[in-house]
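cron nightly-structures :: item 1 of 1
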Amino acid sequence: MKERIQKLLSNAGVMSRRQAEKIIQDGKVLINGMKASLGDKIDPAVDSLKVNGKKINFNVKRKFMILNKPPGYICTHADPEGRPTIFDLFKSRVYLSYVGRLDFNSEGLVILTNDGEMKKFLSLPENGIEREYKVKVRGLVDEDSIRELSKKRRIDRRNVKPVSVRVLQKNKNSSWISIVLTEGVNREIRKICEASGHLVSRLIRVRFGPLTLKGLKKGDSRELIYDEIKKLDKLKEKRIKN
């Protein structure tokens, strides 16, 4: 089955689609010895594809990692402002993409993979994959605050509504709350909290689907074990069947 080159390269974990489009335009991609153009499709079972003179193997083993992102790192491979990125925190022999961006000051669980199809599945809001955040806000959160935080509202031209909001702990001038979402609109939690009169002072993603931060120190990463990958596969299979 033929597919666009940039999609195949992304799904194989070689590079992002945007990077693939650029090197195609730069003339660094060859299909069966001929220079490729944007929009070209190939059948990886039949055609030969070379990038920068290197033949691409589309039968690369899938790789999954989780990272406990500290604040002060950005989710990108290269930042034009020169800020440290999450990819400075670990080494990998294969190209990995992150799933579920966390902003510069946020922290917690980030999934990394070379499986483009799984990344897409986990990212799409319609698939309903839960993401749980532990959030410290200024002020005391009461029942009225919970109702306000739980409202459906429009953010970045999309209707968003938390799956659940609950209080974890109340201090003198602040509260820790849990917020569960199924989408990842830019700075969504910060905007929800600010619209409800509570400024966020700390934001930690503690769960993404069946994966948690348990046993993973800040700044550390690890590969997923077989059972964890199987849980992700089962989520995807269940969604396809439905």
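cron nightly-structures :: done
The helical segments are 5-11, 17-25, 116-123, 143-149, 188-195, 226-241.
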